[in-house]
Amino acid sequence: MDEHEPNHQDHDLISDAGNEIKGMAREGMNHPSTKPVLTGAAVGAIAAGILPVVTWPIGLVAGAGFMLYKRLRP
């Protein structure tokens, strides 16, 4: 690997996330990140339904955000 070539971790997380979200919006279910992010959103919403202090929308966003982060930074 070239020492001047940036590693994936060196890229800006916000711009990477924006590009990934745009790709998911364009390609829909055919994009490789769509299914894991939707699964994370569902798991977060269910977990929030079980927990007494967290509402399901917060759990949904947290679950989707976590899975998107794991797709960008494995």
Automatic annotation (TrEMBL):
The keyword Transmembrane helix applies. The chain crosses the membrane at residues 41-69. Keywords: Membrane, Transmembrane, Transmembrane helix. It comes from the Bacteria. This is Secreted protein with PEP-CTERM sorting signal. It comes from Qipengyuania mesophila.
